Amino acid sequence: MTYPHLNRRLFLGAAGVSLAFAGRASAQSAAGPRNKMVVIIARGAMDGLSVTVPYGDANYVPLRAGLAIAAPGQPNGALALSEGFGLHPSLAGLHDLYGAGQMRFAPAVAIPARIRSHFDAQDVLENGGEGLRQQTDGWLNRALAASGARYHGLSIGAQTPLILRGSAPTSSWAPGGKIEGGDRIASLLQDLYVDDPMLGTNLARGLETEQMAMVAGDATVRRSDVAGLGAAVARLMAGDQGADLVALSIDGWDTHARQLGQLQTRLTGLDQVIGGLHQGLGNDWDRTVVVVATEFGRTARANGTQGTDHGTGSSLLLAGGALKRGGPNSGMVGDWPTLAEAKLFEDRDLTPTLDVRSVFKGVLRDHMGVDRAALDNRVFPGSAAEAPAYDGLV
Question: What is the pTM of this model?
Fold first, then answer.
């Protein structure tokens, strides 16, 4: 598919400088504090039209019927952003970050393949290639390898997601679970892999992560405790040995029915996770960018069960103290295709105007210091045509 041309003003005007970062990682001292990136995957297809609400689009309310989020200033209305958009009212913490110049939104992004299967689309989102199962490892792990092992990777959850699988060693931590210091199996594994340069290091880091969690009092964080999850992850990112590239998943976004209540719960949790990261990271927040992405969006029209079905374009959120402060109209990344009937993708979905890899590339290049050639050929193979979002602003 050919994407519509992006609005030149958004790239070159005053709004353009808003996505620059506070400093390129390539310029920071190797011995100094390291920049950090957290990727949150909203699994199940997050409804971008309810997250970044296009209340200024005349077609939004007619398409959404009873699912439409009211405009800012109305009861239970959206929280005002720029360009005729607002945040879902459950994202009050993120809206505070927006007011401080620490949040941006891309309202119409998508993976490069047009897929409406959750598992297949998540594979494309995480493998970083042009299509399904083109890579056996994940783009975040390849970014770790391309950085020359200067960063530490950490996955949150019972198993490492595809996005962080690969040759670069990473650690993992599952809320609610721990490895006891005297665990016989852990000791046997350490003995078995003591001479293995990759597995031995990876196991040691994993055990160290568990020990960090227990020392910080995080071993009791329940898997359902979203309020404490962000703060717990933040403590695992702090200090010289803390993680720098982190992958975290939040499930439950497949809202085919009774969407209003489900989204309120999910978005409240997302807001709390990011708020916990913000508070828990302390000064490290100023060196952090959080990216929230999903495998695809949902249909522009409401269905008959007060929900929405699998779609295409969706929203992506950026937050963090490392985002350079901008003006009052500098929050939007990319173009808005509108919800006019003639503009809908296959007469049903929001049409994407930006490849999600362009945003990932922009953060990895400008914030984590991964060079463009590595991004085009190694991290996101065959993606040279997709320039980093807001190319050349720092």
Answer: 0.83
